[in-house]
Design a protein that fits this description.
The complex is a heterodimer. Chain A is built from ten helices and eight strands. The radius of gyration of chain A is 19 Å and the shape is globular. In chain A, the strands form two sheets. Chain A has a six-stranded parallel β-sheet with strand order 2-1-3-4-8-7, sandwiched between helices. In chain A, strands 5-6 form a two-stranded antiparallel ribbon. Chain A is about 40% helix and about 10% strand. Chain B is an alpha/beta fold. Chain B has three domains: about 100 residues, Beta Barrel (OB fold (Dihydrolipoamide Acetyltransferase, E2P)); about 180 residues, Thiamin diphosphate (ThDP)-binding fold, Pyr/PP domains (Rossmann fold); about 130 residues, Rossmann fold, CATH 3.40.50.920. Chain B has a seven-stranded mixed β-sheet with strand order 12-11-13-14-16-15-21, with helices on both faces. Chain B has a five-stranded antiparallel β-sheet with strand order 7-2-4-5-9, with no helix packed on it. Chain B has a five-stranded mixed β-sheet with strand order 18-20-19-22-23, with helices on both faces. In chain B, α10 crosses α11. The longest helix of chain B has 15 residues. The chains are: A alpha/beta, B alpha/beta.
Chain lengths: ~325, ~450
């Protein structure tokens, strides 16, 4: 908790703050539960948790309007919850059950929701970057004012296709917000062991794309930056880059012991920068919520998460005939 | 003393061209580098220039003459000093704006032998009595694109040089004029990026037709084709389809070396989630491309540069399509079944013609699509002929022919009177030298030999 920066001009309502608190807490508790289920062998394969980075997706979703699209990498549970996908469907996909968003055929890394305009869930580092620009291309072609949030990490930022995409996105003024979730580690490789060009958003300048770095642990700062970026894109002046300075508390995936950083480093971030504690402080110190109010929210969230876990355990495995479906439309 | 100026080859596959315009006249003094004439290939108009100084003597070929073979003398030139200074063969060099394009562009139209007169199909894809017109594969593809773009405004064409340049192989000629830059989109040279972008646009509700200048360049983008386009429907439990066509020339052209001469039929046919079409004739090119553009799945559409300039009969119908998964029997026969697709059909049909002279009756089947494959037509034929030879340009390991052999063995073993033989390209990167390249490709003679072997003749 410790000293954080003073709350910025509270250009935000009490309801908004409570909403952010709730949404971020949902992601954290959901991910903790996913971690538990993984430990119990109910979730298999790769499972990349979003714990620590919650403010990024919650802040940006607050800047989005219905119809806007989002696409991300394999660390995707937070994005799905933040855009309103059902925790039960997400958790049941993690357990590979028929009730999952992909009927058990996608898994942790590959979920989609046409309803919520969530376009995955992509397992190849940076592949979602041109895909996201393509979604924006479609919206521009169709003449609507939707914006696509294209998320990728600091690791993906070194892939060539990101820069091929920057070039075309600026050339064609596509309405895409490139959101670099810079959690400082590409799996086990810290950014300074991967590049000398560590201010990632500035790389857009080579293509004429503007952008900025944002405190990705501060949901209000994220929302403000998101609103600015979205306005630029809706005005036909996209793309725009937001480099979210954030941090993941857990390993790269469940099987990562995270020996490449110290416990102290992680603890320091949790103590000083935690996004949920930040909002909690704003709520309590501003007199917008009592401890009792927040405890009630905690209980609600816990129930939602437990329900999702229960659903994910009870949902049957997919019918064997599912092996042969959805190969061709 | 006069030297001869010869008709230049302005591209690797050029055999002949039209001498469109003389820019000098008899008696003119010309300087090195001066433009002498404009020459048309069926792709482009090229300027060519004098290598040496001299005085133009007689113009041997009048302007406007079409079909001037490469290396035909087209003019005489006297050296300035009166001596024979100009080397006779390469007295001219191509120059000018049309050459200032990236390297892979320099590989146009029809190759070697004079177009074989396409035999009439035994089982036509159109009603008896339908009028037809003679059309090149190139024109057929362009018609298919234009028709589909007219009928569905979510169809757009994207790729390198498809717009202002009018297509590296002129498949998209005129489309920019008709449909404008919103729907005929020139990309930077950035296959990985624009392929991902087009796949994303398909997720977003559009119907992109993506041109690879050649399929060799699709290797830059293969992750997006396989991991993003082919698999997303499955990974999303059926929610997120990808209606996109990846098209362009595939396989060897002529003398363009190992990195530009490769057949990707077997590569893409391996992938569940993709469909793969590989037309031989102009009618199939048109009918299959229209089907591909309407298909809700990602389709790999493998064209062939050498076939672009070949002419076939195409039915005159308002909306002519060919379904996927339906092979075409080009020639009926009783002694052996020859199965091929794409440019392999050229050799298969030629072999059948030669074999007929030796009294061997070959049935020739064009698969037309490799995913799905029309197994039934192949098996029915093999059950009749009891022998099968497959023909393809690609490499022998993991070939389409291997897969057909296995299928026939599994499903028609008792009907076989001989092992199925696979005629393929040789198991080597494509060499540049003319004689070695010829050796590396599958040949008609090899097919004849294989057929005789399975017929024990």
């Amino acid at each position: 908790m410790a000293a954080k920066k003073p709350p910025e001009t509270p250009n935000v309502s009490k309801d908004d703050l409570l909403h952010f608190y709730r949404e971020m807490l949902l992601i954290r508790r959901f991910e903790e539960k996913a971690g538990q289920l993984y430990g119990m062998g109910l979730i298999g394969g790769f499972c990349h948790l979003y714990i620590g980075q919650e403010a990024v997706v919650v802040g940006l979703e607050a800047a989005a309007k219905p119809g806007d699209k989002r696409i991300t990498s394999y660390r995707d549970h937070g994005h799905m919850l933040a855009c309103g996908m059902d925790p039960k469907g997400v958790m049941a996909e993690l357990t590979g059950r028929a009730g999952g968003y992909s009927r058990g055929k996608g898994g942790s890394m590959h979920m989609f929701s046409k309803d919520k305009h969530f376009y995955g869930g992509h397992g190849i580092v940076a592949a979602q970057v041109p895909l996201g620009a393509g979604l924006a291309f479609a919206d521009k072609y169709l003449g609507n004012d939707n914006v696509t949030f294209t998320y990728f990490g600091d690791g993906a930022a070194n892939q060539g296709q990101v820069y091929e995409t920057y070039n075309m996105a600026e050339l064609w003024n596509l309405p895409v917000v490139f959101v670099i979730e810079n959690n400082q580690y590409a799996m086990g490789t810290s950014m300074k062991r991967a590049t000398r060009s560590t201010t990632l958003w500035e790389r857009g300048a080579a293509y004429g794309i503007k952008g900025e770095a944002v405190d990705g642990m501060d949901v209000l700062a994220v929302k403000a930056a998101g609103e600015k970026a979205v306005a630029i894109c809706r005005a036909g002046e996209g793309p725009y880059i937001l480099e979210m300075m954030t941090y993941r508390y857990r390993g790269h995936s469940m099987s990562d012991p995270a020996k490449y950083r110290t416990r102290e480093e992680v603890q320091k971030m949790r103590d000083e920068k935690d996004a949920i504690e930040h909002v909690r402080d704003l709520l309590v110190q501003g007199g917008h919520a009592t401890d009792e109010d927040l405890k009630a929210i905690d209980r609600d969230i816990k129930a939602v998460v437990n329900d999702s876990a229960e659903f994910a355990k009870q949902s049957p495995e997919p019918d064997l005939a599912e092996l042969w479906t959805d190969i061709y439309a | 003393m006069a030297t001869q100026i010869l008709m230049p080859a302005l591209s690797p596959t050029m055999e002949e061209g039209t001498l469109a315009k003389w820019l000098v006249k008899e008696g003119d003094s010309v300087k090195s580098g001066q433009i002498l004439a404009e020459i048309e290939t069926d792709k482009a108009t090229m300027e060519f220039e004098a290598v040496d100084e001299g005085v133009i003597g007689k113009l041997l070929v009048a302007e406007g003459t079409a079909g001037v073979k490469v290396n035909t003398p087209i003019a005489e030139m006297a050296g300035e000093s009166g001596a024979a200074s100009a080397p006779s063969a390469p007295a001219v060099a191509a120059a000018g704006k049309t050459l200032s394009v990236p390297e892979p562009l320099s590989q146009p139209v029809p190759a070697a032998p004079a177009p074989v007169k396409a035999p009439q199909a035994a089982s036509p894809d159109w009603p008896v009595g339908t009028p037809t017109k003679t059309m090149t594969v190139r024109e057929a593809l362009r018609e298919a694109l234009a028709e589909e773009m007219r009928s569905n405004d979510r169809v757009f064409l994207m790729g390198e040089e498809v717009g202002e340049y009018q297509g590296a192989y002129k498949i998209s000629q005129g489309l920019l004029d008709e449909f404008g830059p919103k729907r005929v989109i020139d990309t930077p040279i950035t296959e990985h990026g624009f392929t991902g972008l087009a796949v994303g646009a398909a997720f977003g509700g559009l119907n992109p037709v993506l041109e690879f200048m050649t399929f060799n360049f699709s290797m830059q983008a293969i992750d997006q084709i396989i991991n993003s386009a082919a698999k997303t429907l499955y990974m999303s439990g059926g929610q997120m389809g990808c209606p996109i066509v990846f098209r362009g020339p595939n396989g060897a052209a002529a003398r363009v070396g190992a990195q530009h001469s490769q057949d990707y039929a077997a590569w893409y046919a391996h992938i569940p989630g993709l469909k793969v079409a590989m037309p031989y004739s102009a009618a199939d090119a048109k009918g299959l491309l229209k089907t591909a553009i309407r298909d809700p799945n990602p389709v790999i559409f493998l064209e062939n540069e050498i076939l672009y300039g070949r002419s076939f009969e195409v039915p005159v119908l308002e909306d002519f399509t060919i379904p996927f998964g339906k092979a075409k029997v080009w020639r009926t026969g009783t002694d052996v079944t020859i199965v091929s697709f794409g440019i392999g059909m050229t050799h298969a049909l030629e072999a059948a013609e030669n074999l007929a002279k030796d009294g061997i009756s070959a049935e020739v089947i064009d698969l037309r699509t490799l995913r799905p494959i029309d197994y039934d037509t192949v098996l029915a034929s093999v059950q009749k002929t009891n022998r099968c030879v497959t023909v393809e340009e690609g490499w022998p390991v993991g070939a389409i022919g291997n897969h057909l052999s296995a299928t026939i063995m599994t499903r028609a073993f008792d009907y076989l009177d001989a092992p199925v033989l696979n005629c393929t390209g040789k198991d080597v990167p494509m060499p540049y030298a003319a004689n070695l390249e010829k050796l590396a490709l599958v040949t008609t003679a090899e097919i004849v030999e294989a057929v005789k072997s399975v017929c024990y003749r």
